[in-house]
Structure formats: C-alpha cells, structure tokens
Amino acid sequence: MANQDLPNIWRLRETQALVASLRRRQGELLGVADIIELLNEQPGNKWVDLLAEGIAELARELKTKTMPVPDIVEWLAEWSRETRGEQRGLLLLTAHRAKGLEFDHVAILDGGWDRASKNEDRDAPRRLFYVAMTRAQKGLIVMASGEHAFLKPGTPCVVERQVVPQFPAGGLPSRVYHLPNLKHSDLSYAGRQGDRHEVHRAIRECRVGDPLHLDHRASNWELLDRQGRLVGRMSKSWEHPTGQILLSGAVGAVVQWRKSDGDEQYAHYARRDAWETVLPELVFAPPGQVPSAATLPDTAVESVVSRANPAGCTEIRGGQLAKALTPDDADALAALAQRIYNESRSWGEFIDSFKERGLEVAPKGGGLVLRDGTDGRELCKMSALGLSYKEMVQGFEEGFPGHPSPSMADYALGKKRAGAPKPQRRSKPSSEKDDFDIIDE
C-alpha cells in the first residue's frame, strides 16, 4: 500500500545519523564505498534500506570519483526531497487526481464510465477514461464486469482475460491502517519535557519495528513501549477509529524535531532546542475480525480497556461497561477474562495474568473489580465480564487473598457460620438490570 504522506526523510533518525557521520569527516573527499561504510554503522531497517537506494543513485553519477563532504550532504538533502514524492507500493486514486502523473503499471477499475457528472457534456467520461489510460508507461489493465462502456468485445487491440474473484470465506478484512505521519503525532511533546524526563531515554532506546500500544489517559492517547514506558502522544486532532480494536502497533519512524519547527506562539513551552519524536504505525480491525479469544493479541485487549473509561471517570459500575464500549468490544474483553480464568489454577495465576496485561484485580465490597494497573482507575466489576465472585471462589476453592469479607467465601463454599450474609431486601426496585448475586451484594 502506498503512503502519500511519507515522513520527512531528511528528519529521519537514520538520515541525521548518516549526516553526522559525514560531517565528522569534514574536509575529506569520499567515494561511494566510504559513504556505504558510514551507513553500515547503523542497524538495518526500512529507512536504512531507503538511504541505500539513494546512495546507489549517487553511485551511478559518481562511479569511481570522489566528492567533498559538504557536496555529499547537499546531494543527500536534495535527494530526500525528491524521493519523498515518489510513488511506492499500490496507490489507489481517482482518474481526476491522476492527471499529470505517470506510472509504470495502471489498473482501471470498472464502474461509472458510462455516466457524465453534473454539468458535464456526454463525452466527458470518454475524455477522462483517456486520461486514465495514458497514465500507464509499461502496462495497462482495464477491469470490467460484463460489457465495458468504451472497450467493446472483439476489439483487436485488447487482450482479454477471464478472471474469477476468490474471496476469503469470512470476507475481506475491514482494517484501518495508520502509517507513520507527522500529522498523527504530538511532535512537540518530548520537547516540552525536561532533560531528566523518562520519555527521552525511552525514545533513545526504541528502534523501528519495536511494538507499541495505545493508552487513553485524561484526554490524550499515549504511546507506550513494551515496558510500559511513555514514548509519545498522538496529536489532539487524531481520533481512534470508531468501533475498531488495535490489532498491532509498532514504531514506524523516529524523526528529529526542533523548537524552531513549531508554531512560534508555542515555542516558549519547549524546554529543549531539539529532540526526537516517535511516529507510530498502527493497524485496527473490527472486534468481529479479531482472532478468537485463545489468540487475542494483548494490544487488542489494551485498546479495549483503555476505551472503557476514555473520559477518565473514577468508576464504571456493572452494566455501565456496555455503555462505554461497543457490544463487540465488551465481548472481546469478557472473552479474555474467561480465558484467563479457565487457564488459571489458583488466585495467584489469575492475578498475575491480568497484571501482565497492565490490569489489576482488586476486592471491593462483596466481590471483585478490574482496575487500570497504571493509575488505579476502576474499569468495571468482574461480574460485568461474566465472572461472579461466588463462582470463582468455588472454582479456586478459597477466597480472594486479603478479601475484606472472608464470610462471603465461606458462604460460597457452604461453610455456614455466624455472621454469614443474609439476602437484603431493597426498599425500591433498581433501574439497572441485576448482574449480581448474594455474594456480590
């Protein structure tokens, strides 16, 4: 898939590292082999490979000659501007937007070529189709279901191929891809933090391809690395795709940013002159297309849990979880909770499994609640996920460690004793659907 909004190649960490290596040899004449040697000092990734393509272009110009370091840096800057606009991957666009562009291979999709737009003459579609065809430099494919509006059967200049579409049994995935983009990230976040803030160390240690996940704190979507360290924020204009779960997140690129690059009216907030910013690469999918509970990725669960309380409310009770999440999201989280319970042989394993996912199981009242392990924010009651305290006590054959109401466990295990709870009668009917039993109450 093509990315028309590639990050600024000159700002990439890899480009700036190469430029810094070149400037350390100021005053020398370097050949292509010298430049490649400097590039190979960096660990390989897709951006290093892109820089290698640029050096290969320079090699075709230099051949066996050498070049002063300032000229090499200037050439690299010019190349980075030009290559950012080059089309890479599969680009989907309208025939109108394709005007003036050229591609090696073009495939024109079917539909609408026999209809003129409003205020157009009847030959306008034919002229537009001609524009689309003449974008191709090497190969042209015209797709049609049935008879095409302009290319008639038996035309000698057309080679016909019959194609039978083959779709997956479950249908095509409706995924949303957010590629590295300067517009998606809060570019100045790290610059607003002091030199001792952990975000600077976390960004220095992250590498392209490292896993990331999203967490909603206060009014911001934050990016956390595999150790749970903050590495950046999404911009305020960025929105989590509605009804989607984060399937995977990774460091797409790391770019350098400066105080002078931002809006001048906000420059006084910056506490550094220059810093690095992480640009994420994110993939989202509807909950119905998420793998089964047995293989549900933790990133998907983290995305669901973060959205359980996006407004930062102090508590979500019982059935309120279904109001905060879509039904499919709640089902995904409930499926994970059920899987953890089924795989756990003790309360210790049950607690640790949630802790590994950044969640905390805690006692409250006569039951259990699920909390955010980072800030202690209460997300929901365990009973809202289909796990009643009574059933879990009977499954583990003991009460939750340190539960303030041990009599609840005794009652669930059939140990009648003085002080065992008795059903309490409500003074008036509840407006909520009851999702608790005597133990929860």
Shape: flat
- Rg from C-alpha positions? 29 Å
Strand order of the largest sheet: 5-10-9
Number of strands: 13
Based on secondary structure, the structural category is alpha+beta
Integer average pLDDT: 80
Largest sheet: 3 strands, antiparallel
Order of helices and strands: HEHHEHEHEEHEEEEEHHHHEEEHH
Low-confidence stretches: 292-297, 304-328, 416-441
End-to-end separation = 54 Å
Beta-strand percent range: 15-25%
Q: Summarize the amount of helix as a percent range.
A: 25-40%
Give structural notes.
The protein is α+β, with helices and mostly antiparallel strands and 441 residues long. 29% of the residues lie in helices and 17% in strands. The protein has twelve helices and 13 strands. It has helices at residues 13-23, 32-39, 46-62, 69-84, 124-133, 198-205, 298-307, 320-324, 327-343, 347-355, 389-396, 406-412; strands at 29-30, 67-68, 103-108, 136-142, 176-178, 213-217, 220-224, 230-233, 245-258, 274-285, 359-364, 367-372, 378-381. The strands form five sheets. A three-stranded antiparallel beta sheet has the order 5-10-9. Strands 6-7-8 form a three-stranded antiparallel beta sheet. It has a three-stranded antiparallel beta sheet with strand order 11-12-13. A hairpin with a 2-residue loop joins β11 and β12. α2 (32-39) runs antiparallel to α3 (46-62). The longest helix has 17 residues, at 46-62. It is flat. The relative contact order is 0.08.
